[in-house]
């Protein structure tokens, strides 16, 4: 991006086009580059423009909102198919949950980033293959390989959304980092919309109940499900036109929850050894153990994506301690699942969990090492984010293996 900015400094039209296509990436690259080109009049104008951009919320145009609402309605229509086609919800939602959200987010970013269908036709081909695969995959909610395929296939759809978001710049670490940052922002904004929607729902139901009109069933099965399906799309659009909207919230959340999570992890590990709880023979305990591990990894990822040059060194120390504690946590989970495999044999679930824990352990060690180097001032903060973004394809490949190979390897059991 820096090379392109330098190249177009004497071509205002191309520079403006570059900015409109990649606003966040442009801003980050421009401010990093500015000390080198500060004598250039065009660079000075752009610096003043980017510094003085308005902080108030932008709402876009009516035409844009019509498109957003159309996508939201389509997502809601997909979510309502079990009611309209008399399909059992327990058979529909596990199979198609990812298809309610990700294809429509892909569509939204294609429109906002002016990506033609021809440029990403191969991605939609993969979406179609994934849909047909999960549609005709033998099994039901009681089959291990079926459940694993339903859980891991959305990771592939998430990766396809990332390719659209990054505009096919797959090897660009900075684009991957911005995509992770977008996911954190999307999570925050979606939760805010859902919280506001939940409050509105509560008020609506309470008011009508006062006049003996009970709308719970009708409201939740109509407006509720449409709102759930549309909320990520609306949130994504708001983030796209207001990149600053939650960018200041994410560091606050990271600063608050990283120390709290560290305290939780340390106290839990102490209590675990003090009580003498054995995770090796308790399947439910091990399952919860791994769910907590994934949650802590998400908090570490979220905290790293909120890094900036002004990030407190105290927060870096906290993240280093949290990473070390999580490595210990992951080591217990990894040893427990290996013990169960040796004692009771290999099953799809055990092999999938083993792969998850092994990948998380390797990634955690890399993150811990880079954080330690940052503390010693031998590496920049970017090295920490690269230790995450460079590992993302590995997670995607493993998810594809679990989704497509495990059912065949284990005979659809």
UniProtKB/TrEMBL annotation:
Keywords (A to Z) from UniProt: Membrane, Transmembrane, Transmembrane helix
Transmembrane segments: 93-110, 122-140, 146-165, 186-211, 217-239, 251-275, 287-307, 314-338, 358-376, 388-410
Keyword Transmembrane helix: yes
Membrane in keyword set: yes
Name this protein carries in UniProt: DUF4153 domain-containing protein
Taxonomic lineage of the native organism: Bacteria, Pseudomonadati, Bacteroidota, Chitinophagia, Chitinophagales
